[in-house]
Amino acid sequence: MIKESIYHRPKNNFAYAYDEKTLHIRLQTKRNDMEQVTLIHGDPYDWSENKWQVHKKDMYLQASDELFDYWLVEISPPYRRLRYGFELTNEEEKIVYTETGFYNVAPSDVKLYFCFPFLNSIDVFQAPEWVKNTVWYQIFPERFANGNTENDPEGTLEWGSVDPSYDNHFGGDFEGVMEHLDYLEDIGITGIYFTPIFKAYSNHKYDTIDYMEIDPQFGDKETFKELIKKCHERGIRVMLDAVFNHSGYYFPQFQDVLKNGKSSQYKDWFHIREFPVQTEPRPNFDSFAFTPHMPKLNTENPEVKQYLLDVTSYWIEEFDIDGWRLDVANEVDHQFWRDFRKKVKTIKSDVYILGEIWHDSMPWLQGDQFDAVMNYPFTLAALDYLATGTITANEFKNQMTKVLCSYPENVNEVAFNLLGSHDTARVLTLCNEDSRKAKLLYVLQFSFKGTPCVYYGDEIGMTGGDDPGCRKCMIWDKSKQDLQLKSFIKKLIHFRKTEAAFGSRGKFRFMESGIETNHLVYSKSYENEVVYVAINPSEKPITVSIPDVYGTYAKNVWTNETITPIKNSIKIELGANDFFIIKAY
Ligand code: ARE
Ligand code: CA
Question: Which entry of 286, 356, 458, 459 is annotated as an active-site residue?
């Protein structure tokens, strides 16, 4: 037994409250090292005849990556307290692992065990329920649709006449979005994420001038109110971008510091390292990525905090928005986010809080800060596997297993799964414009654990490289839209809504990742059904077998064909660059 590989630590992704009654306990062991893992557990105060009363429950192998196996068990301690350890068995030996180390036999002293002190309801990580059923659509407002040329900024170019550059404008606005709500509703979209809409200098609006004003190029507050109302009438939620890490250069408070230096009343609103303030060659104040256009806000300063929390409440109270996406969330202090969450949830308890973090985000997902993060590790791995082919099916499986096992299951259920955004090259471009590859990516995205988001225009096959290439004007001319791709995505969205196991409640499990064939098979189960998904990105047809098929009946949900399992298994021919989605029940 390789003891060095055995790892567990309570109160994070290894031991957490799944809901008000249930704990999940996970253990990591070296891959293929254990035959069986059993949880030894009891209530710390449950003694009888001077003996601590212990019970046992087998854990199941939830997933494996390149190096490790991850075991999981669900348990509902009657008094919500738990002391526990693990009994590990392989053909060589049987040992017991607890907080104090390894033992040949289970120690009788409760003090030596791991401790989950109490399952307090208020501490349970709980994202808003509606998020699980949401299909997001990301809109970069300056490029979605121009509904009113009167608010166009000076120098606005003809819609789509040239490629986007760092500073050109095309006049997109709220009226444009309103005109196309039918379009969004028809595809099945139930949530819109808008990149920033507050008054700012640039075309992307990440350099805020006034957090209490709508940028005049998008419309006014009345129009925005109307837009929200119209969205809500159609069952579409609205999420805004909160750019609280930094302001813009033309934020009046920063301008005051530029003007009055040390004597400015706002000098502590930022992180100025020395006076006079200078921007060249590098700013002598903290900013986003060294750009002088985005001075970092001092969110530790109570005045700044109050100001930003007022902004937060204002847009919820007055406009009834449903979510905040937090820009550069990981560079802002945790204390700020804790207060932010309290504020948001007291005003409207089911507002969704989504952090923009590209890396491991466990510290923000403990229930006291965010409801989810943008799942860029998924984006990157999915694109590497299916778009550029730089990793194999097996590497994809390993990478995603690692990601999935580094979070609680209730966190994974609401992960924000995207294939691209205004910060990345477009999916189709990364697929070398091969829409067969893009379709496989959508199958993966829509069946994966978490909630999907479509970046505007991807659904009709728009192309574009890295920022600013990925911010082209939406194509509205139907003859230039890939309508086939659009109906493909629409069908997937439909399945998410109608097939329970396909949606985010389904329990996800990798089944196969072909070493030679490079194909991937996984399943999702929910209540009385299991959905099996297979993806074959290779140029060769393959045969995929699914052993131990669940239930009695099976059906290919994509083609509606009935399938008859033979001796409990299914064998299916899968063409090159093809997929299947089979439901067994
Ligand atoms: C513009 C140009 C860039 C140029 C930059 C230089 O487009 O090519 O390098 O200027 O100043 C906004 C605009 C951008 C603009 C930027 C700066 O949308 O167009 O760039 O402002 O003016 C990291 C951060 C993450 C951040 C990304 C971009 O962690 O928070 O970088 N994303 C948000 C928004 C952006 C926005 C800003 C932040 C600033 O979504 O749109 O940019 O408000 C790895 C790293 C990540 C890194 C990621 C992407 O994975 O680990 O940390 O994200 O790559 O680079
Ligand atoms: Ca306009």
Answer: 356
**What ipTM is given for this predicted complex?**
0.98
- Tell me which residue has its CA closest to atom 46 in ligand 1: 358
pLDDT in tens, 264-320: 999 999 999 999 999 999 999 999 999 999 999 999 999 999 999 999 999 999 999
Active-site residue identified among 215, 327, 529, 578: 327
**SS3 readout for 434-469:** CHHHHHHHHHHHHHCCCEEEEECCHHHCCCCCCCCH
Cα-based distances in Å from 59 to 56, 67, 79: 10, 19, 21
pLDDT in tens, 92-129: 999 999 999 999 999 999 999 999 999 999 999 999 99
- Tokens 């995205």 belong to which residue? 445
- Tell me whether residue 356 is one of the annotated catalytic residues: yes
Q: Which ligand is nearest to the CA of 465?
A: 1
- Any residues with CB less than 8 A from the CB of 8 and at least 6 apart, and which? 14, 15, 25, 26, 27, 28, 86, 97, 114
204, 354, 380: residue to mutate for ligand 1 pocket, most atoms within 8 A of CB:
204
Q: Does residue 206 have its Cβ closer than 6 Å to ligand 1?
A: yes
Pairing of strands 237-242, 323-326: parallel
Nearest Cα to Cα of residue 190 among 409, 503, 481, 482:
503
> Kindly report the CA angle at 515 between 509 and 516, in degrees rounded to 5?
135
Helix locations, 268-408, DSSP H: 302-319, 334-347, 376-382, 393-405
Domains annotated for the chain, with CATH where assigned, are 3-123 (2.60.40.10), 135-244+320-498 (3.20.20.80), 246-298 (3.90.400.10), 505-584 (2.60.40.1180)
Find out whether the beta carbon of 242 lies less than 6 Å from any atom of ligand 1: no
